[in-house]
Amino acid sequence: MYQYIKGIITQIEPAYLVIEVGGIGYLLYMANPYRFTDVIHQEIVLYIYQHIGQDSQLLYGFKDEKEKDLFLRLIKVSGIGPKSALAILANENHAGLIRAIEGKDEKYLMQFPGVGKKTAGQLILDLKGKLGDLVSDEMEDLPDLPISSNNPALDEALQALEALGYSKRECTKIRKILEEEEEKATDGYLRQALSLLTSS
């Protein structure tokens, strides 16, 4: 019904933001609303989707048409509702998600909140081969994360970092550091990586 909304962002909260249009504040649930902190009190265009449930009518907001389109495809998958879809989209770079679906990487997908083995399999079944049009130039420019065939624990830790929202470049940089360390279990690599990222 609605395509986009143009107004001034007046409030940002962990799960939503408020955009004022013609004196009315519209509450939009969004993936990572803090992305818009630098444009608060400025006019902006956001794409929207209206979800009508049995006892609620909610508006969901997106930074562009591609993010909205990806959301719409996600909620068509059995086991994925609007809240789960937003959690999956919280990582602003969606290249990792798309690559995981195309590569049938269930472990990567299961790191998203609310996604178990069954739902991960359903995401692959329903969406594999159908997301190529959503890959932006920015995604294509990002280098693939090198795969260390002899260190799966490190690979898993870095995939977890991507699921938590860290960029491809950050993960590649961390890999170079961790490859010089003694081999650890996945959780050990993850703890050290988070320590390095938060102290830098």
From TrEMBL:
Keywords: Cytoplasm, DNA damage, DNA recombination, DNA repair, DNA-binding, Hydrolase. It is found in: Cytoplasm. One of its GO terms (biological process) is DNA repair. GO terms for molecular function: ATP binding; four-way junction DNA binding; four-way junction helicase activity; hydrolase activity. Its main location: cytoplasm. Residues 149-200 are annotated as: Domain III. Gene3D superfamilies: 5' to 3' exonuclease, C-terminal subdomain, DNA helicase RuvA subunit, C-terminal domain, Nucleic acid-binding proteins. Pfam families: HHH_5, RuvA_C, RuvA_N. Residues 72-91, 107-126 form the Helix-hairpin-helix DNA-binding motif class domain. One of its GO terms (cellular component) is cytoplasm. Residues 136-148 are annotated as: Flexible linker. The keyword DNA-binding applies. The RuvA-RuvB-RuvC complex processes Holliday junction (HJ) DNA during genetic recombination and DNA repair, while the RuvA-RuvB complex plays an important role in the rescue of blocked DNA replication forks via replication fork reversal (RFR). RuvA specifically binds to HJ cruciform DNA, conferring on it an open structure. The RuvB hexamer acts as an ATP-dependent pump, pulling dsDNA into and through the RuvAB complex. HJ branch migration allows RuvC to scan DNA until it finds its consensus sequence, where it cleaves and resolves the cruciform DNA. Homotetramer. Forms an RuvA(8)-RuvB(12)-Holliday junction (HJ) complex. HJ DNA is sandwiched between 2 RuvA tetramers; dsDNA enters through RuvA and exits via RuvB. An RuvB hexamer assembles on each DNA strand where it exits the tetramer. Each RuvB hexamer is contacted by two RuvA subunits (via domain III) on 2 adjacent RuvB subunits; this complex drives branch migration. In the full resolvosome a probable DNA-RuvA(4)-RuvB(12)-RuvC(2) complex forms which resolves the HJ. Belongs to the RuvA family. Has three domains with a flexible linker between the domains II and III and assumes an 'L' shape. Domain III is highly mobile and contacts RuvB. This is Holliday junction branch migration complex subunit RuvA.
